[in-house]
Amino acid sequence: MKKVKITVKKIARYDDLIEQYENPIEHACSMELDQTFICNGWERPDGFCLSAWDTVSSFVMALAHGGETSTMAG
Questions:
Q1: How far apart are CA 13 and CA 29, in angstroms?
Q2: N or C: which end of the chain has fewer CB within 10 A?
Q3: Is 74 within the bounds of a domain?
Q4: pLDDT value for 70
């Protein structure tokens, strides 16, 4: 299985949605722009936000098993 490198390129925060919830998470993520992580297959790297991992983990798994990146880049 290949290792996969992830670089943080955008961080989204939706204050309008946060205000709608009774117990909002004020600081859900500590990642920074251009921060990099090395993934070992399905294992979430230390410091990688859980919600972001839920979004990208299937792509990481595909890449770790030799998938192509051309259809995953936006």
A1: 10
A2: C
A3: no
A4: 57
What is the value of pTM for the model shown? 0.73
Q: How many CB atoms lie under 10 A from the CB of residue 49?
A: 15
Task: Determine the Cα–Cα distance for residues 34 and 10; give it in Å rounded to an integer.
Answer: 9
Collapse the DSSP code of 53 into the 3-class scheme (helix H, G, I; strand E, B; otherwise coil) and give the result: helix
Res. 6 pLDDT band, cuts 50 70 90: very high
Structural domains of the chain, count: 1
Q: Where are the alpha helices (DSSP H) in 1-74?
A: 15-18, 50-64
3-state helix, strand, coil split of the chain in percent (to 5) is 25, 15, 60
Residue count of the chain, please give it. Answer: 74
Token look-up 């936000």 returns 49
Q: Is residue 33 part of a domain?
A: yes
Spatial distance between the Cα atoms of 63 and 15, rounded to a whole number of angstroms = 33
